[in-house]
């Protein structure tokens, strides 16, 4: 069943035009992207089932293209491509915001940006936000993957990339695939090691952000930097 087959007051498109996007629920917004349902299942029901499968809109946006393929109703290339495009647009919008103002003028945007990049990964990723002298984003780079320790993250490589980008400061970040965001002793030791190494080339470590499913933790706010 497509939108045209729904009652007029239940059509997300008309509701959005009349009342604004904020008036729509997550399933209604997703239904606008999906456009059509399946035989015997209208598009709103399909959207609600997809959200339930991924644990909500955040889980869906963190899904990789291959995660979408087995879901009945999302197997088509066009629908999967549209959902992935929405995610990429969100990333680019947040990156633009962070390039235009100091990262700590918009801490929520930093957390959301890192969520979109790291939260869904099934293995640990260590990334660095390289910042200019005004603490605006130059670039985010994923530098290491796997279990993060002082021996698996090479300070020399982080220093080399900071010099390459002419960075004045950095925000370190990594994800916890388990979902928790509490820093471990290894996280604290790694942060101090990198802080010392980067100080030798006059690059400040402003924060180390730990990313979990739907949440982030700032080690700077914990007094651990």
In short:
The protein has 225 residues and is of the alpha+beta class. 44% of the residues lie in helices and 16% in strands.
Count of discrete structural domains: 2
Q: Report the top-level CATH class of the largest domain.
A: Alpha Beta
Helix segment tally: 9
Structural class: alpha+beta
> Mind telling me which CATH architecture of the largest domain this is?
3-Layer(aba) Sandwich
Strand content: 15-25%
- Strand order, biggest sheet? 2-1-3-4-5
Mean pLDDT across the residues is 84
Q: What can you tell me about this protein's structure?
A:
The chain is an alpha+beta fold. Helices cover 44% and strands 16% of the residues. It has nine helices and five strands; from the N terminus they run H-H-H-H-H-H-H-E-E-H-E-H-E-E. It has helices at 12-19, 26-34, 43-54, 57-62, 65-68, 77-100, 107-118, 155-164, 185-199; strands spanning 125-131, 137-145, 169-175, 204-212, 215-218. A five-stranded mixed sheet has the order 2-1-3-4-5, sandwiched between helices. Helix 8 (155-164) crosses helix 9 (185-199). It starts with 11 loop residues before the first helix and ends in a 7-residue tail after the last strand.
